[in-house]
């Protein structure tokens, strides 16, 4: 049986790490804009990728531990988001709201781009809206994941 209190603590710890990733992406973006040097874009892209990867790690952990399931197949990343936004009566509440799921899908798509192109092909104009929205997207995900972590603690205490 899963230790829901431990899982809750892991989620909160990951959120603290993600706060650092968000701040780092914002800082590197400011440096890029101040200097006009596009070479900073690589660092911004890497941190945007890390942001989504960290959130996905939390979702994978929650789904595998609580649902005792793992999405598979070529579209497993999209399936994980879908599962995370699904309330499973008698097992767990939704991990993410539908709204958060939808905005995170943009970051999932960008993560795929970063993994499959050369860094010098990154486009500032594609990155700018992701960076502009990053803080609010993180805030929404944090609210959802903190609510879920609290629900896990409630489940464990019955």
Q: Topology of this protein?
A:
Blueprint: H1 4-35, H2 41-67, H3 76-84, H4 98-116, H5 124-157
Distance between the termini: 14 Å
CATH structural class: Mainly Alpha
CATH-defined topology: Four Helix Bundle (Hemerythrin (Met), subunit A)
Shape: elongated
Largest sheet: none
Estimated helix fraction: over 70%
Sequence stretches where pLDDT stays below 50 over 5 or more residues: none
The CATH architecture classification is Up-down Bundle
Strand content: under 5%
Mean pLDDT: 93
Radius of gyration from CA coordinates: 17 Å
Q: What is the ordering of alpha helices and beta strands?
A: HHHHH
Q: How many domain units? A: 1
Number of strands: 0
Count of helical stretches: 5
Structural class: mainly alpha
Walkthrough of the structure:
There is one protein chain. The chain has 158 residues and is mainly α. It has a single domain, classed as Four Helix Bundle (Hemerythrin (Met), subunit A) (Up-down Bundle), CATH 1.20.120. 77% of the residues lie in helices and 0% in strands. The protein has 5 helices and no strands. It starts with a helix and ends with a helix.
């Amino acid at each position: 049986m899963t230790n829901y209190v431990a899982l809750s603590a892991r989620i909160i710890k990951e959120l603290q790490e993600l706060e650092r990733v968000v701040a780092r992406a914002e800082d590197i973006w400011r440096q890029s804009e101040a200097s006009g040097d596009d070479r900073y874009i690589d660092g911004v892209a890497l941190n945007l990728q890390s942001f989504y990867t960290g959130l996905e790690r939390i979702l994978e952990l929650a789904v595998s531990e609580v649902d005792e399931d793992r999405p598979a197949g070529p579209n497993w990343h999209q399936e994980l988001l879908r599962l995370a936004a699904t309330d499973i009566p008698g097992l767990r509440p939704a991990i993410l709201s539908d709204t958060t799921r939808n905005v995170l899908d943009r970051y999932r798509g960008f993560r795929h781009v970063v993994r499959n192109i050369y860094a010098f092909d990154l486009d500032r104009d594609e990155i700018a809206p992701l960076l502009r929205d990053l803080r609010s997207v993180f805030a929404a995900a944090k609210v959802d994941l903190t609510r879920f972590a609290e629900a896990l603690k409630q489940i464990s205490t019955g």
